[in-house]
Predict the structure.
Amino acid sequence: MSTEAVTRRDQLLATAAELFAKRGFHGVSVADLGAACGISGPALYKHFPSKDAILAEMLVSISEELLAVGRERVASAADPTAAVRALVDWHVDFALTRRALIVVQDRDWESLPADAREKVRRLQREYVDVWAHQLRRVHRGLRTDRARAMAHVAFGLINSTPHSGLLPDAQMRALLTSMALAALGITERT
């Protein structure tokens, strides 16, 4: 695949995320998406077989990225506490830079084709387990179910950004990081 094709595909996904976030998956037609990308609606079919495939690619690929980068951050951390901090930093960065994807995931989940929905669920469970494993290393004796619940609490807090981002991004980043670490029982750096 040429670089131009990859760039166009990425542009289509980013534009679709913004449009789906604003108007909902069912509120955006193929023609709308094409027009927003400067191409005809039917030209989208050179890149994706359907609008459903765009949604699937969007949510599967971001779930794969969350998991891959999460694993990388853990692998390069000096210790479990540093790993949790790195996970929080990564997820906060994701939430601040990809707000539209969070909205699409929340609102248009039911529109996701069943096979893609199952793949996203599996990837999300693996991502939660990356967090839970590090939390159990930080908090000795912490049960797995509680560690997973703690991860979900942090995600809920951080993923509220599209709805609660009332501060400039730098201030929001500091607030989200501080609150997520506190929710996970990690004290502020001194």
Notes: The mean pLDDT is 92.
